[in-house]
Amino acid sequence: MKEVNDAFKNLGFKYNKNMIDKSYSDALKDDDFRKLISKLKISEDEIKKRTSLLEACVKELRNCSECPSIFECRNEIQGYFYSPMVTNDMIVFNYEACKYQKDLNEKNKYMNNIYLFSIPAYLKEAKMSEIYLEDSSRKEVVKWLKDFIKNYEKGKKDSDKLVVKLTSCISAKER
User: Fold this and answer.
1) In the chain, how long is the greatest CA-to-CA distance?
2) What's the CA gap between 27 and 55, in Å, rounded?
3) Distance CA 172, CA 87 (A)
4) Angle at Cα 80 formed by Cα 78 and Cα 84, nearest 5°?
5) How many angstroms separate the CA atoms of 153 and 83, rounded?
6) Which of 17, 67, 107, 132 is most buried, with most CB under 10 Å away?
7) Residue range 8-41, pLDDT digits in tens
8) Which residues are CB-neighbours of 37 under 8 A, at least 6 positions away?
9) Considering the entire predicted model, what is its pTM?
10) pLDDT tens digits, residue range 34-51?
11) 61-to-20, 54, 57, 94 alpha-carbon distances in Å
12) How many CB atoms lie within 10 A of CB 90?
């Protein structure tokens, strides 16, 4: 370990214990910082070494507590906060989703099952309520889709029929 410290000294990096202690004592003046480190079951020396990273965690947690929505998030990575965790007597940092990001992920979870190849991405977000109904050639397909959805919700989950019916409707229109 001494060789590593010597290598750092040669590069111009100096381990200044007084500066680290001062930074730690300044950080202890913050109530949120004290609450955060009290939850970490680790030595004070390890906490001192990670003071600036822990202060960044406190800042992001504070931003989350005052945040009205994900669209007004002030954290470095929108929807996530920097979080410390103790692993093998070391502090490890990672990003965790905030409550708004978790809600958004849950609402959009169904999109994980949709795969599009060579098709514009906006089709993935298409909604029945946004279908253009003025074209008379679409009425048969739209009516069939509405019936299918109504029956699907009643328990008739036969998605293969949807693909076959849509394919036959499309190919009939192309002839």
Assistant:
1) 83
2) 7
3) 62
4) 145
5) 41
6) 67
7) 666 655 667 888 899 999 999 999 999 999 999 8
8) 47, 54
9) 0.57
10) 999 999 989 998 999 899
11) 23, 10, 6, 13
12) 11
